[in-house]
Amino acid sequence: MAALMLLPIDASDAGWLSDIFKGSSKRTKSPAHVTSPKRAALAKPAAPQKHHGVKLAALGPVTLNPSALDPAATTCDPSKFRIVLDVGHTAESEGATSARNVAEFVFNLRLAQRIEEKLKAEGFPETRLLLTEGKARPSLAKRVTVANNLRANLFLSIHHDSVPDSFLEKWEFEGKKSHFSDRFSGYSVFVSRNNPDFKTSLSFAELVGKEMKARGMQYAEQYTQSIMGRYQHPLLNKESGVYSYDKLIVLKSTRMPAVLLEAGSIINREEELKMDSPERRDIISGAVATAAKEFCGSQWAFLGPL
């Protein structure tokens, strides 16, 4: 879940900027390894090499032409349209923990990598995978600054959902104590009305939600319910499952349209298994790619070649 993104950004966090291109990668619960051959696919990968700052996967040496960083020069041409895929959380602050004791960060990374592959295959070669390292608070400032410095045309943050602690139930998986909640399931899409381009953010979010729904997925409805307490959010589109989460730092502080996708619930035991499957990652990546093409195509049709 994305609650940690409500943390304020301190001015002192800006000191990392000199290391921004030197390379490198929700912590509410701690993860554990899964060792059963039956669930081997859920095992957490080896910890990444320690660095400071942010890694832009597959970016290579940074020799970007300044003119290529101008959004006005790249808008809606898929070959130049820069989508930043933000891998939610970090190896140090791994986000939620699944019903089978796997860190959310593991799920986020796998799905984001698959979406990156799909977008590039579908004609968006400028797609960038944003892998941030460090603790939760400073990592938020890093994500925003990297995306802004890259002059991204679109920012999409990838997450997997959980529930408030009060909804958790106890169980054991492979002899280890764990928690689950089968009460809720589904994806959700978030935007911030404080984003400088809220209308465009909402437009893309609605396309993502529409494509997820068209592929047989249902959105999580619990965020409209009073039982969610401080996690309750206004539903902006009841057809596609788009919610407003105005104070999320990565949504409100980026200078481009920004969307956060909670791809599904990993605290729900049945849905966790689905979210771990390559088939589900293919479905979601296909939904995002189709949404991106429709989003870019509609703007291209309106503006014409630049």
Write a short abstract of this structure.
This protein has helices at 71-74, 104-121, 136-149, 198-214, 249-252, 269-275, 278-303; strands at residues 54-57, 83-87, 128-132, 154-161, 169-173, 176-180, 188-191, 235-237, 242-244, 258-265.
Can you describe this structure?
It is a single chain. Helix 4 (198-214) packs across helix 7. The strands form two sheets. An eight-stranded mixed sheet has the order 1-3-2-4-10-7-9-8. Mean pLDDT is 81; it is low at 3-52, 58-74 and 300-306. It has helices spanning 71-74, 104-121, 136-149, 198-214, 249-252, 269-275, 278-303, and strands at 54-57, 83-87, 128-132, 154-161, 169-173, 176-180, 188-191, 235-237, 242-244, 258-265. It is α/β, with parallel strands linked by helices and 306 residues long. Helices cover 29% and strands 16% of the residues. The chain has one domain: 3-Layer(aba) Sandwich (Aminopeptidase), CATH 3.40.630.40.
Blueprint of the fold:
Blueprint: E1 54-57, H1 71-74, E2 83-87, H2 104-121, E3 128-132, H3 136-149, E4 154-161, E5 169-173, E6 176-180, E7 188-191, H4 198-214, E8 235-237, E9 242-244, H5 249-252, E10 258-265, H6 269-275, H7 278-303
Parallel strand pairs: 2-3, 2-4, 4-10, 7-9
Antiparallel strand pairs: 1-3, 5-6, 7-10, 8-9
Helix pairs in contact: 2-7, 4-7
Approximate strand percentage: 15-25%
Structural class designation: alpha/beta
Overall form: globular
Task: Name the CATH homologous superfamily.
Answer: Zn-dependent exopeptidases
In whole angstroms, how far apart are the ends? 39 Å
CATH topology: the name is: Aminopeptidase
Helix and strand sequence: EHEHEHEEEEHEEHEHH
User: What's the architecture, going by CATH?
Assistant: 3-Layer(aba) Sandwich
Main sheet specs: 8 strands, mixed
> Which runs of at least 5 residues are low in confidence (pLDDT < 50)?
3-52, 58-74, 300-306
Strand order of the largest sheet: 1-3-2-4-10-7-9-8
Number of domain units: 1
Round the mean pLDDT to the nearest integer and report it: 81
Number of helices: 7
> Which bin fits the share of residues in helices?
25-40%
- CA gyration radius, whole angstroms: 18 Å
User: Number of DSSP strands?
Assistant: 10
Task: Quickly name the level 1 CATH class.
Answer: Alpha Beta
